[in-house]
Amino acid sequence: MFNPQYAPRYVDRNRDHLQYFTVLFISFLQGCFSGREQGDFRWSGDIDKTEIVIADQNNMITDKYLPRIITVRGQTTPLPIMIKDFCEEDPATRAEKRSKLMDSSITFHCIAKLGIEAQYLAQQVQQYIDAYYRILHRKGIHKINRTLSISPETPANAVFNPEVVPEGVLIMVTCQFWYRHTFTVTPSDLPAAREVENYVTASVGGKDQSTVSTIRPSHTGVDSKNPDTKLDIQTPPLIKL
Questions:
Q1: CA-CA-CA-CA torsion for 1, 176, 147, 155, nearest 10 degrees?
Q2: I need a surface site. Which of 64, 147, 201, 209 has the fewest CB within 10 A?
Q3: pLDDT in tens, 152-171
Q4: pLDDT tens across 126-146, in order?
Q5: Per-residue pLDDT tens for 183-208?
Q6: Which CATH number is 130's domain given?
Q7: Residue 130 domain boundaries
Q8: Which residues contact 158 (CB under 8 A, 6 or more apart)?
Q9: Domains of the chain: total
């Protein structure tokens, strides 16, 4: 996992939507805390000057940097729908665009040496999300449950490895949210999918490895550059027969 505390980068929502929304919340809090007065948990992209660390759980930051807000994504589940997830089909390639509404959550672990500091950070996180949730909506989140829950105080090493966070008090803020995930697939009877099926058939059928290697799929389907923002299905690349 990269460390967005001091190495931010562009994240493609269509390539990894789970990572995208994790980084979205991290960047949101970094922006909120960067505007605070010096001495009041002001965040900075310079790890040696920042007064608070805001990063993902696998951040490779030494334990000397406290306080910190660490994000941990919760379970993500597609919501059941009464109708098909089908959106549209390209009449030329028969590529299908599908869309699902995803139910997910993210927990902010507010860690400080004193319980009163961890409690203050948790309250600030709750207040920022409740006040500026529309910013998150504009970046792809369908809805945020603004009734965020704040946990009681817990020793930080009860959740994190003592070798990583040996001391401190932990208070967790949990935020539930929903977002739309759209993707494009190749129908099961077209060449890209048939190659996968042939490979599976050869594997479970015990065919010779040389035969299997000749039908290994060279492409996974119709390329869709940006299915979450464009209404039309992308034109697939030309394949010479």
A1: -40
A2: 64
A3: 988 766 666 555 556 778 99
A4: 999 999 999 999 999 999 999
A5: 887 776 677 777 877 888 888 875 55
A6: 3.30.2000
A7: 17-184
A8: 170
A9: 1
